Description:
Blueprint: E1 6-11, E2 14-21, H1 27-44, E3 48-56, H2 61-76, E4 80-84, H3 88-96, E5 104-106, H4 109-116
Parallel strand pairs: 2-3, 3-4, 4-5
Antiparallel strand pairs: 1-2
Amino acid sequence: MADSRFQITQEGSVSIVQFFLPATLDAIEIDGIIDSVLQKVTAAGHARWLVDLSNVQYLGSSMLGLFVNIRERIRQAGGTLVLCGMSAELMRIFRTCCLERLFVIAHSRNEAMMLVGR
């Protein structure tokens, strides 16, 4: 079930993680998503990553922690990460948690592709 909540695709040299998350998820499903995403990001070894959140309604603390972990793994590998597609609600959550300081956040996927390609 976890793999149905996200997909990883390749666009040129950029790996794109697109999430499909409803407003609520149970703890078991969240744990499965976290484990699966971290395994795939770590195994991929790509340097340029884009995370598309356009199909995400809400992020709780566990999922926010996932993004911090993804960022750290990509950073340690010398890579770049850009987030995009955030709704006003998601942006408010990131600001409330002061996470907008940790991430490069683009308004659109096209803008994110330009930023991650630098």
